[in-house]
Amino acid sequence: MRDASLRIRPYITSDEKAVRLFIGRALMEGLAEANRRSAFHPITLALWLALSAIMTQSLGWGPKPEFGWAGYLLPLPAFGCWGIALLYLLDWNNRPSFEEHTAAVLRRPDLRNILDHYSKTPPSSFFILEFNAKIVGFIAVDALGVDQDSNPEANTKDRLKSDSRSAKIRHFFVDEPYRKTNIQNDLMKHALQHTFHDEHNIREVQIESSVLNGYVRQSLIDIGFKHGNTIRNVGIYGWAVQLCTLSRAKWRECCLSTT
Q1: Less Cβ around it within 10 Å: N or C end of the chain?
Q2: By C-alpha distance, which of 79, 78, 86, 81 is closest to 39?
Q3: DSSP code per residue over 190-256
Q4: What pLDDT is attached to residue 1?
Q5: Which residue in 17, 219, 13, 19 sits closest to 130, CA to CA?
């Protein structure tokens, strides 16, 4: 680690409250980014300018140079009104898909008993990132079979039989003040080193990614994940959520290149 006050340790039961809070926060960060991107999207800006211009023209709120510099401020209320209205409409359209996904994640089997779930198979892990004894991040790698996404009620034995060579990063979060140091790369590498250990038979690790979680996506690129097919689209402008994969061979190549 880069700092003696930073450490990565296994999850313990007393972490549950903080972890659940951060999981919800991590999922809803995508909504904030979707709203920001939506507000500055060319279609949104064009619509805002057009509606504001129509309102300004209809109500006679155009600039009036005869009143001096204050006369040029007359159109501002129209732009402000439509700006607020569009921001509300964008959030209203973006929010449902994020709230539905957050609710679905919080209902997954792995969060019913975190310590028990991530202790069932050796390649699985749930690591906590601490700074001065404060939780600032975590990563959860689930090796109980990636098909539980389509069949979350399947029992553990069925999932192990159906897919024992793939693992999935189900939760990955680092608090914003610590992202500039790229500590998220160290955290992910620590978890991958455990999952791809020679004693384990994991051939690939998967994770869902989108441009709405920029620091996660950059970390995946740095480590060597390959961006694959689109799983779903979210938000009013349909940002793609992709399934990214990292093979054991690619991981070994990455490790050798950094040593």
Answers
A1: C
A2: 86
A3: HHHHHHT-TTS---EEEEEE-TTSHHHHHHHHHHTPEEEEEEEEETTTTEEEEEEEEEHHHHHHHHH
A4: 46
A5: 19
pLDDT tens, position by position, 108-130: 999 999 999 999 999 999 999 99
**Token couple for 21:** 């809070």
Radius of gyration of the chain (CA): 23
Residue type, 209: S
The domain total for the chain is 2
Q: What is the pLDDT of residues 125-169, one digit of tens each?
A: 999 999 988 999 999 999 986 555 545 555 545 444 445 689 999
Give CA–CA dist 259/250, Å, rounded: 14
- Write down which residue in 46, 63, 95 finishes a domain: 95
Its pTM stands at 0.84
Question: Does 137 lie in the same domain as 11?
Answer: yes
